[in-house]
Amino acid sequence: MAGTLTERYIGAVTRSLQPDAQNDVRAELEASIADAVEARVEQGENQADAEHAVLTDLGDPAVLAAGYADRPLHLIGPAYYLTWWRLLKLLLWIVPATAMVGVTIANAIADKPIGEIIGQAVVVGITTIVHVAFWTTMVFFILERTGADTGMKWSVDSLPEAQEDGVGRRDLIASLVFLGVASAAFLWDRFIGFALFSGDSIDVGIGLGSQTIAVPILDPDLWPWWTGGALVLIGLEALLAIAVYAGRGWRPALAAVNTVLAIAFAAGAVYLVGTGQLMNPDFLQFTLYRDDVPSDVGRILSVLLIVGIVGVAVWDIIDGWLKTRRARLGMR
Question: Same domain, yes or no, for 44 and 190?
Answer without folding.
Answer: no
